[in-house]
């Protein structure tokens, strides 16, 4: 039996929706999308919700929060005949986790025709991949002369208190540590991976509550090195933040963000329209141009400056985790991270 633990606050937040979910009357053409806030939510609105769905008569309502509360809400509402949300944005690791919990609707590919353009290595029958990017080391080129090239370089005492990572991205940090320590990113529960992250903690790592906050930390000089997706490096550099990427020698973990449909989604027809719109070439190209993420479809070729900026090194070793393994480890690693790092 897969075990999933959530905080009391997250559980109460999910339970608080129970009296309303399933009772509230909704317009047939309304789609509720659970997503991250900030830049991601704004780009969804400006490139999918308004230009594609609105002309179709579909009203999109965004419900923004971090990923843990979104998953907690799905679990709290799992026995309701009608839940609250139609589309939920999740990282690939969480999508597999919620699939294993029996929370997801298999995607009817005949109703999402753009799925046929998704790159073969990203396809599943329950998850629509939206964007992807390799996880890389980051550094301030104005202050860092010895560029980090491996995860273990972040343990150097010269960067004590100057290393920054996203608290919300903890599982990807664990996969990078596992890959560096054992050569296998799936061994996030190994003693070797945990010890490496403990050493990172001992080196005064700064944990940021959002991905956007890492860029702010780099801009202010609070941190000088760290780890995040290559997409964010390009986005922040274009915004004037002093930042560059370094591809770690042991390989870069593949980051994939996408969308799922809960089994008890009230408007599955609308959800399918949303997934299909998300995969439209103009929407995919906009995320590449504005946020630096690579398209998951093969009919949205990039050109010009965007193509040059997002070109990956020909010898890049990009590692895709076995989500069937890592999804089952999410709960216990979340507990370990909170007890170890946040203390």
Give the CA-CA distance, first to last residue.
29 Å
Question: What is the helix/strand order?
Answer: HEHEHEHEEHHEHEHEEHHEHEH
CATH architecture label of the largest domain:
3-Layer(aba) Sandwich
The radius of gyration is 20 Å
What does this molecule look like?
This protein is an alpha/beta fold and 343 residues long. The chain has two domains: 192 residues, D-Maltodextrin-Binding Protein, domain 2, CATH 3.40.190; 123 residues, D-Maltodextrin-Binding Protein, domain 2, CATH 3.40.190. It contains twelve helices and eleven strands. Strands 1, 2, 3, 4, 5, 6, 7, 8, 9, 10 and 11 form an eleven-stranded mixed beta sheet that branches. Strand 1, helix 2 and strand 2 form a beta-alpha-beta unit. Helix 2 packs across helix 9, helix 4 crosses helix 12 and helix 5 crosses helix 6. The longest helix has 18 residues. It starts with 7 loop residues before the first helix and ends with a helix. The N terminus is likely disordered.
Task: Reconstruct the topology from this structure.
Elements: H1 8-15, E1 30-35, H2 38-53, E2 59-64, H3 67-76, E3 87-91, H4 92-100, E4 128-139, E5 163-166, H5 170-182, H6 191-202, E6 206-208, H7 211-220, E7 225-229, H8 230-238, E8 244-246, E9 252-260, H9 268-278, H10 281-291, E10 294-295, H11 304-310, E11 318-319, H12 323-340
Parallel strand pairs: 1-2, 1-3, 5-6, 5-7, 9-11
Antiparallel strand pairs: 3-9, 4-7, 4-8, 4-9, 4-10
Helix pairs in contact: 1-3, 2-9, 2-10, 4-12, 5-6
């Amino acid at each position: 039996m897969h075990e999933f633990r959530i905080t009391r606050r997250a559980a109460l937040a999910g339970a608080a929706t129970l009296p309303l979910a399933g009772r509230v009357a909704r317009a047939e053409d309304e789609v509720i999308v659970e997503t991250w806030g900030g830049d991601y939510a704004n780009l969804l609105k400006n490139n999918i919700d308004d230009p594609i769905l609105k002309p179709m008569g579909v009203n999109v309502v965004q419900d923004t929060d971090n990923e843990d509360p979104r998953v907690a809400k799905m679990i709290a509402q799992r026995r309701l005949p009608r839940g609250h949300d139609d589309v939920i944005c999740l990282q690939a690791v969480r999508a597999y986790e919620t699939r294993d919990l029996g929370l997801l609707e298999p995607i009817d590919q005949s109703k999402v025709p753009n799925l046929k353009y998704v790159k073969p290595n990203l396809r599943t029958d329950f998850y629509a991949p939206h964007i992807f990017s390799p996880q890389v080391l980051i550094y301030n080129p104005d202050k860092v002369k010895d560029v980090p090239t491996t995860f273990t370089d972040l343990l150097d005492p010269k960067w004590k208190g100057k290393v920054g990572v996203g608290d919300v991205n903890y599982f990807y940090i664990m996969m990078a540590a596992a890959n560096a320590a054992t050569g296998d990113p799936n061994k996030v529960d190994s003693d070797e991976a945990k010890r490496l992250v403990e050493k990172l903690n001992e080196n005064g790592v700064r944990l940021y509550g959002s991905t956007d906050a890492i860029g702010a930390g780099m801009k202010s000089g609070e941190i000088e090195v760290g780890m995040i997706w290559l997409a964010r490096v390009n986005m922040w550099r274009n915004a004037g933040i002093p930042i560059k990427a370094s591809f770690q020698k042991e390989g870069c973990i593949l980051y994939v963000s996408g969308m799922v449909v809960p089994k008890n989604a009230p408007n599955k027809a609308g959800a399918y329209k949303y997934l299909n719109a998300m995969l439209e070439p103009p929407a995919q190209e906009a995320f590449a141009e504005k946020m630096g993420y690579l398209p998951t479809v093969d009919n949205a070729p990039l050109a010009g400056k965007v193509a040059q900026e997002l070109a990956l090194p020909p010898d890049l070793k990009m590692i895709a985790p076995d989500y069937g393994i890592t999804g089952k480890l999410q709960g216990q690693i979340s507990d370990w991270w909170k007890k170890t790092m946040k203390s």
